[in-house]
Delta-lactam-biosynthetic de-N-acetylase (Thermoanaerobacterium aotearoense SCUT27), 320 residues
Amino acid sequence: MLKKLGILFFVLVMALSTVSCSFFKTKNPASVEKKSVQKPSVNVKTDSSAASNDGKDNSAKNASNDVSDAKTAESNTVNNDVYSSTINTEGLDNTLYGWGMRVLPDHKTPEITSKAMSLIKKYDGIFTGDTTKKYVYLTFDEGYENGYTPKILDILKANDVKAAFFVTGPYVKEHGDLVKRMVAEGHIVGNHTVNHPSLPKLTDDKVKSEITGLAGMFKELTGKDMHYLRPPMGEYSERTLYIAKSLGYKTVFWSLALADWQPLPGGPDESYNTVMSRIHPGAVILLHAVSKDDTMALDRILKDIKAQGYVFKTLDDISQ
């Protein structure tokens, strides 16, 4: 009897052990494939031989809400035939360069690095105009409106000077009347992108969207096309220069600029003196239209540049 009870107890223990193991056993979770969004590889290049990057532009405000507007307008972009074609950036260097130059005395053309010059030539960029003649080219960056553009346009008209205004998405959206006035008075309106990002840090598609989106907004507003691009903050790479050219744009840098996106310590006199001391044949001048100092000095700048025998030309004259 005891032997039977022992056998029964042993069978019961074994049964409970099996149930327990089955209850607590868990199988390994299925592996989940994670898809990461690949960002372009960016190497930031610091050019010690370039003295300054005076054209740094911190002016584009409240731009993030304009992405949807850009996408809506993209169907109206200037270069749809080019945009729809395949743009292959494989193998192109995406090292990020910040535009800079070494200012030289005696009204000589500033120096840029050999690398910058080779990229300018390869991708039809603009740094200066005709340096053999006393021609100058006036450009403004318009990230946002600070109340001075109407006065700037008045001064340009009074002095019979045509300029180029590089605008952003928020500017086109919020100040369409001023953009229309620029066009009506014979000025060039250039592309400063929708949201003012650093282009080398974006994917190819986002670079194209920033450029064509802004062009679409401008086309919808004015019926006109855009042909010139100024990269935000002067940041570029070989890859972004290639994309811009593939979309039908000339990338426009500058050879004369100052830190005028913020109040100048010396006020309008500093604006005037800096421009007049750095003016040179073929100069592409960059001013920021948000600057009160530039606006107050502008009439005197234009008159005295002309008095020195210079002639104001446009970016179109460079492209011919």
Remarks:
- Residues 44-319 form a domain with the TIM Barrel fold (CATH 3.20.20.370).
- The first strand starts at residue 44 and ends at 45.
- The chain is about 40% helix and 10% strand.
